[in-house]
Input
Amino acid sequence: NAGVTQTPKFRVLKTGQSMTLLCAQDMNHEYMYWYRQDPGMGLRLIHYSVGEGTTAKGEVPDGYNVSRLKKQNFLLGLESAAPSQTSVYFCASTRAGTRGDTQYFGPGTRLTVL
Amino acid sequence: AQSVTQPDIHITVSEGASLELRCNYSYGATPYLFWYVQSPGQGLQLLLKYFSGDTLVQGIKGFEAEFKRSQSSFNLRKPSVHWSDAAEYFCAVGAKTFGGSQGNLIFGKGTKLSVKP
Output
């Protein structure tokens, strides 16, 4: 039982390049989330998904797209990377998605955009 | 507006000393409150959570937190800190998502804990 895994762990991009971050969970959770973490800012929600085939915007969605084609996977895409997207990205999942539910986090992806 | 405030950006304590990390929240309804810990280079791990019942909550690794509704606080405590407790600690409130009904976490900005030998 690996929990929540993220691929890749590190990535360096040039401005304008695109990439996809993969999040996978093996807990059969319905709800999945993408956060970004910046120094002194805590974690901010980018997008989330309430189930396979369904996604929604969070607090800071601009410049990102997501897809949830399979229940266990949640992809975060950057179509044209900008230096402002340099951050650490965390994926999380929850079983029931209620506001008291525990979120399980992946180890993070450190992205640098030059 | 829903928010979480962690007033201390960085705290240094000596090993064996007691610890208290402060957290204040703003939330209109009954709050669901969480403390997460992030070790360097790692993801976030749940320490404890509160949503009803006894206002003193026990968590993993010897941590506890006390919910005080009158003060809108949920402070994290540990009686004796170990060097391995050096990490960043995040307080969060469980809120409804933007216009939706399911849960989301609103995080504070974190408190970095350093432990002196």
In short: The first strand of chain B starts at residue 3 and ends at 5.
